[in-house]
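Sample entry (273 residues):
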Amino acid sequence: MHPLTVTQRPVILASPKNFYSGSTLFLPREHGAWSLALEPLALGLLVAPSAAGGALTAAALAGFFARRPLRALLRGETSPDRNLTRFTLGLLTLLVMIGLIELKLISGFTAAWPLLLAVPCGALFIYFDHHHESRAAAAELAGCATFAILPAALARAAGWSAPTAWALAALALARSLPTVLTIRTYLRLEKNQGASRRQPLLAGVIALGVIAGLAREQLVPGLAVSFLALLLIRTFWLTSVWRPHLSAKQIGVNEASLGLLYLGVLAYAYHQQ
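Predicted structure, serialized as tokens:
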């Protein structure tokens, strides 16, 4: 028999838009999502480690990775691996439930009540994501707030008082929310699109003022005020006429580096108290 007549399996080509396989089922494509979601969790674990906090972090990570399969099913997207999408979402949902049950068993409801604010923010982001508006300012701010509130729950799980726990969440919010507005404005200015410079600057000033007030009450380290002042200078620079011309990838790498430095400074400052 001629070798070319041997029966071969047909090669099925699928467009990248509808093709799901392996990790592409759940890994976010947006680079900024990784930093703004993982930074608050890392902050909570670094300064307020606990077994209950580890369980909550596992649940939060499972919820983070569940976004893409959930969106695919809610939108009714067709895919050769639709059953695998359902299985992935089911598995991640199960992991969320296990993490929350472990949190309840270890710490009771002490760490659960801050989640009452995080859940509505997450639901709002899911709503925007379902309607193809995940890049809207309100959607990005809601997504950031969802994870920035979690350090309060992590701190409560570690036995912190309510004021100090919420102060820790304020540090995460003060870093993430002005950053989102800053990067959005910078990218639009680079594309010669309309963008308000006042919003990120105002958000940065408010964040600095809030953290300065908390530092005055000795609820957060004084070093946090200095770092937020540095971030405000960064916001002014990136939204000014003297801004550097960087690609989206370059600005993302710079912000991720700033995030790591922020975590290091805060972890050092808290452990020195």
